[in-house]
Amino acid sequence: MRSAVPVADEITAWQSRPLDAVWPVVYIDALWIKVRDGKVANRPIYLAVGVDLDSCKHVLGLWIGKDGEGARQWLTILGELKARGEHRRKCSALTNETSSAARPFAEVLQELPRE
């Protein structure tokens, strides 16, 4: 049986890689999937996808949540993205639940009008 350690090391390096300072568009969302961890449970998978200045999409990160989706988890994720270098974004929707999570980017966030 092969060891998963080399793969785990690559995943860790990918998750902590530095990001460009400017991403004109960043999509963030949570997907709910079934995860087997002793038992089968629904867990949120948080996803951040950035569009660079050349209009190419890049997965900026994936995170597996423990239980429900909430502002505290979003605050952690957005803080991690900021620490890795991503500093400017326009937000397509800020709800009361996620507005506290937007604090790391308060100086650069601009809410876009809903269509």
Write up this protein.
The protein has a three-stranded antiparallel beta sheet, covered by helices on one side. A hairpin with a 5-residue loop joins strand 2 (40-51) and strand 3. It has helices spanning 5-15, 71-83, 96-99; strands at residues 25-36, 40-51, 57-64. With 115 residues, it is α+β, with helices and mostly antiparallel strands. The longest helix has 13 residues, at 71-83. The chain has three helices and three strands. The protein is globular, with a radius of gyration of 16 Å. 24% of the residues lie in helices and 28% in strands.
Helix-strand blueprint:
Blueprint: H1 5-15, E1 25-36, E2 40-51, E3 57-64, H2 71-83, H3 96-99
Antiparallel strand pairs: 1-2, 2-3
Task: List descriptors.
single chain; alpha+beta; three-stranded antiparallel β-sheet; 115 residues; 28% strand; 3 helices
How would a crystallographer describe the biggest sheet?
A: 3 strands, antiparallel
Structural class of the helices, strands and pairings?
A: alpha+beta
Q: Which series of helices and strands comes N to C? A: HEEEHH
Strand order of the biggest β-sheet: 1-2-3
Strand-residue proportion: 25-35%
Task: Count the E strands.
Answer: 3
Overall geometric form: globular
What ranges have pLDDT less than 50 throughout 5 or more consecutive residues? Answer: 92-98, 111-115
Span from first to last CA?
53 Å
Radius of gyration: 16 Å
